[in-house]
Amino acid sequence: MSEFFATSGTIAAIATAVVPQQGSVGIVRVSGDQAMSIAQTLFHTPGRQIWQTHRILYGYIRHPQTQQLIDEALLLIMKAPRSYTREDVVEFHCHGGIMAVQQVLQLCLESGARLAQPGEFTLRAFLNGRLDLTQAEGIADLVGAKSPQAAQSALAGLQGKLAHPIRQLRANCLDILAEIEARIDFEEDLTPLDDKAIVSEIKKIAAEISQLLATKDKGELLRTGLKVAIVGRPNVGKSSLLNAWSRSDRAIVTDLPGTTRDVVESQLVVGGIPVQVLDTAGIRETTDQVEKIGVERSRRAANAADLVLLTIDASTAWTQGDEEIYEQVQHRPLILVINKIDLVEENQRKTLQSQIPEVKFKIFTSASQNQGIDALETAILDIIQTGKVQAADMDLAINQRQAAALTQAKISLEQVQATIEQQLPLDFWTIDLRGAIQALGEITGEEVTESVLDRIFSKFCIGK
What we know:
Elements (H helix, E strand, L loop, with lengths): L10 E4 L10 E7 L3 H8 E2 L10 E8 L6 E10 L10 E7 L3 H12 L3 E2 L4 H8 L5 H11 L4 H11 L4 H23 L9 H19 L2 H9 L1 E7 L5 H9 L17 E7 L2 E7 L9 H16 L2 E7 L6 H10 L4 E6 L6 H10 L6 E3 L8 H13 L14 H22 L4 H19 L5 H8 L7
Parallel strand pairs: 1-7, 8-10, 8-11, 11-12, 12-13
Antiparallel strand pairs: 1-2, 2-6, 3-4, 4-5, 5-6, 9-10
């Protein structure tokens, strides 16, 4: 059996990030039938405080044998079924840092609990009917959200906005299956099956699945973000552009070409989408060994990026060096950034317009003057909307696992349609229809395997 199905006993883990000399509070979470007895063994309350569910007690954590004081803390009690796992849960709210929470966790383990596996608290919540799989994945997405929109999408999943349409689609498939199987078992007693009505209903379900699948790319962007590489010749203003965009001095800016020798990263949010911006070394032929390494890293960054910002210097016009870099990156999603526009006259700008290649997205900026940044962000959102991501609902964004199951369900429904068109016996109709039902059930957890649970919950942190 998978380790994730070994959910008996009482588990404990640190439920907050442990950072040396940082964090005012550290939480040790315990769940299981021994949670209350462990708390009563370790936690000592002054006065006449009442040990009731959903109360917070004040007291001291002491070693059960030596009575050595470990910490002054709060204890939160949540008895089953009104808890996250639907088991008895207690939380020791200790002082932050490293030592207090680690000592308290060790005492919990010595008192009968075992260390929780990654995601085991949430797994128990799923197995005990507190959450479905889409809600569990929503929790993981919320913890890892990199932008407000990513958090909103995760909350939508946690609130069941994905589970509801999936369950409805599965219920519709079950209704069709029941109607077909009724004809198989009681053919003589029922009216003939309306093939056209069945096909029409299956097409409707498949269309709704396609709408859900259209949110996959948006979901990937919200979860992992967009990787953007700023490339160009030395001294065209790439580092200035990064600094102006991020409103910081992440990159060193000088008048000397070749100042940036390595890739400099900055994390931004554009239109709710996390963006990792890479300021790369200027690409040119050089005999300097250190600069050569930087140039090679720049080329690799450009090839690995989701979007390339090819930056040129308006004051030097379009050069042979710009042309060579353009030839290397033109196959990538591309925005041409014409920087230092404040240094050229109107007639020079017109000349430059005639020299540069025809690209769909072209932005004029003056990084030193903080001009053109809004237009750049607008262009990035435009290239997203006209590229991989199509008008997806921001509130709903599926992940790769859910997309794979939806794709399988859609394929199965298409095979049902083909079976009907070939006028095969009703028994054959049910085979692929059951496949669609199973695939949809895998999304919410009504049909689940150990390998699916392993894959989902192994990505969680230990205390969640």
